[in-house]
Amino acid sequence: MSKRRMRRIIAGLLTITVGFVTWSVVVTILLRFLAPPASALMIERRIDSWRSGQKHSSQYKWVDLDRIAMPIASAVIASEDQNFLHHHGFDWGAIQRAIDHDENSKRLRGASTLTQQTAKNLFLWPGRTWVRKALEAYFTVLLEACWDKRRILETYLNIVEFGDGVYGVEAASQRYFHKAADRLTPEDAATLAAVLPNPHRLRANAPSAYVRERQHWILQQMQQLDPVALR
Fold first, then answer.
1. The pLDDT of residue 126
2. 166-167 and 59-60 as β-strands: parallel, antiparallel, unpaired?
3. If you ran DSSP here, which 8-state letter would residue 204 be given?
4. φ and ψ at 52, to 5 degrees?
5. Per residue in 23-33, pLDDT tens?
6. CB count, 10 Å around CB of 88?
7. How large is the C-alpha radius of gyration of the chain?
């Protein structure tokens, strides 16, 4: 390969990289102030349904954090990321515990923070490839740099999947409890948080013994969180 051709390839890669970084920064800054019309996960689910020929309906309605009951914020933090208010996108202690667990168990243990999950759901596709993991880390850093914790939590609560085609706490609250998200009780909130490990298998409206057990544990953990700090 000639030096001239190599320089062109390098210049092209640099152009693509700069373009991607510029686009991602601009979009991330805009989404700090604007509600996303959809997430990458919602789009991916829609494409999958088109490919399979199956009918797919989705429920998604953005609501501001002030219109979301405090218990659901406490519940997802208690369930998914108890160090959310203190880390900068990555919980290194949880990551090390997950590594130690995975070395001695066939069942993988997750260590993703709420920021990582928000980055994944908002911008990326499901999967465990190194490329996707690298992009998840990049967008996690970007979110922590451009958004405050309140915006990260607000976005997570609005785009996380609580069931097949059910995105965000407002849609989940209406679907499973027939009430607005600002009327969720601690028990409702803990039930919703309990299905997050696998919202396609676990049901908030027909909780299994496992979901009930997780709900009870989450309620206990919620009592240890500072509700003032979450606001």
1. 80
2. parallel
3. S
4. -85, -15
5. 999 999 999 99
6. 11
7. 19
Query: One-letter amino acid identity for 126?
Result: P
Please, are residues 191 and 211 in contact by the beta-carbon 8 Å criterion? yes
pTM, two decimal places:
0.90
Local structure of 112: helix, strand or coil: coil
With the C-alpha atoms ordered 90, 91, 96, 102, is the resulting torsion angle positive or negative?
negative
Tens digit of each residue's pLDDT (9 = 90 or more) over 111-170: 789 999 999 999 998 877 899 999 999 999 999 999 999 999 999 999 999 999 999 999
Q: What is the pLDDT of residues 184-209, one digit of tens each?
A: 999 999 999 999 989 999 999 999 99
What tokens does 193 get? 């948080």
**Cβ atoms within 10 Å, residue 201:** 9
Distances (CA, A) of 127 to 20, 130, 131, 210: 21, 9, 10, 25
Residue-by-residue DSSP string for 36-87: -S--HHHHHHHHHHHHHT-----EE----GGGS-HHHHHHHHHHH-TTTTTS
Which token pair is 31? Answer: 């989404």
